[in-house]
Each structure stands twice: as C-alpha cells, then as structure tokens.
Amino acid sequence: MGWLIAVVLIIVAFYLVSLYNRLVVLKNKVDNSWAQVDVQLKRRYDLIPNLVETVKGYAAHEKDVFENVARARQMAIQAQGPTEKGQAENQLTQALRQLFAVVEAYPTLRANENFTQLQGELSETENKIAYARQFYNDTVFMYNSSIEKFPANIFANMFGYQRRNLFEVQGEEREAVKVKF
C-alpha cells in the first residue's frame, strides 16, 4: 500500500513539473515571438527616414506630411507592449498613407530607382510584420488558453503567469500600407 501511494505521488510530481515546464516554454515562446515582431517593426522604422528623404527631394512643400510621418514613427518607436504598439502602428500606417498619396502626384519620383528600392523593401517588411504579428498572436492564444485551463490555471496563478495581450490593428488600419504605383 505504501509503495502505491509513493507511485501516485511520483506521478503527480512528474505531472506538476511537466505542467510548470510547459507554462515556462509557452511564456518564453510569447516573449520570443514579441521580440520577432519588434525586430520587423524596427526594420520598418529604419526604412522610413530614407523613404521620407527621397520623397522630400521631389515634394519639399509637403512639410506637414513629413512631420506627421516623423512624429508617428517616433511614437511607434517609444510605444511599449502590444496594445500601445498597436495604437502607435495605426497612426504610423495613416501617416505613411499620406506620404504615399503625395508620391502619387510625382511620376518622376515613382520612377526613381532609390525610391523604387525603398518601396520594395518597405513592402517586404510589411509582409514580415504581418507574419510576425500573426505568429505572436497565435503564440499568445496558446499561452492564454494554457494558463486558463484547469488544473494549469491554479498552477499559473501560484507562479504569477498572467494573460498577454494580442497585437491588434484597429478598424480601417487592418489593410497593409499599399506601396504599389
């Protein structure tokens, strides 16, 4: 009888260790996937000044548009966490749409090799951001689901695991920035 109790206790201990390790792995996956989103967003932020400078050479009188892009970029860089970052990204997307609306009025700019290269890099980066965002949200979904299920929810509460926010885009910002001319 004593050995049966010992076996049951060992099985329960292994289960609890396994459960804890699963929560750790999921938490780390969420952190890693957010870091991947951040890497792609930084790439986007690094491309924007070059794009603005290229457009400035053709449309110097569009000062408000350039200032809006610079301000939105700075806000996006400083934003922390998925919720704040999502809001800042929405504003940056709006500012970039204004910039590309200006570009439409300048056919020689659209044909400029430097601009075309930057446009291609930004388009590629937008695709990478969309993928990284999707992967992050999928990982957060798995993590949140795991810490809410019984009996993991008890364990998660004991060790301070909390829900994570999805990286969401609001309303009309759901469309990617269009960079085709």
Query: What is the chains' assembly state?
Result: single chain
SS content category: mainly alpha
State the CATH superfamily name: LemA-like domain
Helical content band: over 70%
Write down the CATH topology: de novo design (two linked rop proteins)
Order of SSEs = HHHHHH
**What form results from the Cα inertia axes?**
rod-shaped
Descriptive account of the structure:
With 181 residues, this protein is mainly alpha-helical. The chain has helices spanning 2-56, 63-78, 81-103, 107-111, 113-148, 152-158. The longest helix has 55 residues, at 2-56. The termini are far apart.
Keywords:
de novo design (two linked rop proteins), 181 residues, mainly alpha
Write the layout of secondary structure elements.
Blueprint: H1 2-56, H2 63-78, H3 81-103, H4 107-111, H5 113-148, H6 152-158
Helix pairs in contact: 1-2, 1-5, 2-3
